[in-house]
Amino acid sequence: MENGLYDLAAEEKNRLEEKQRAVRKHREETGGVYRPSFFVEAKHPITKEPYWRYKQTYWEERRDGKLKHYKDIF
């Protein structure tokens, strides 16, 4: 869209959304559970409410070349 390629941007958005839907459907059909790679469920220290806390590992894993084993989201 940045370059005025609105049709191409819309097609790509649709492709990504369809891929996400297919992955979710497969996960639901097989009883799989989604687990975030870079966040962990935690309790807020003050409110005690659950939230997703960033694990602070992305940049180290990227630097060390460990991102190759993650699923292709594109």
From TrEMBL:
Domain of life assignment: Eukaryota
Record's protein name: Uncharacterized protein
Similarity field? Belongs to the OSBP family.
Q: Which organism is it from?
A: Dekkera bruxellensis (Brettanomyces custersii)
Q: Which GO terms describe its molecular function?
A: lipid binding
Gene3D superfamilies from the UniProt entry: 3.30.70.3490
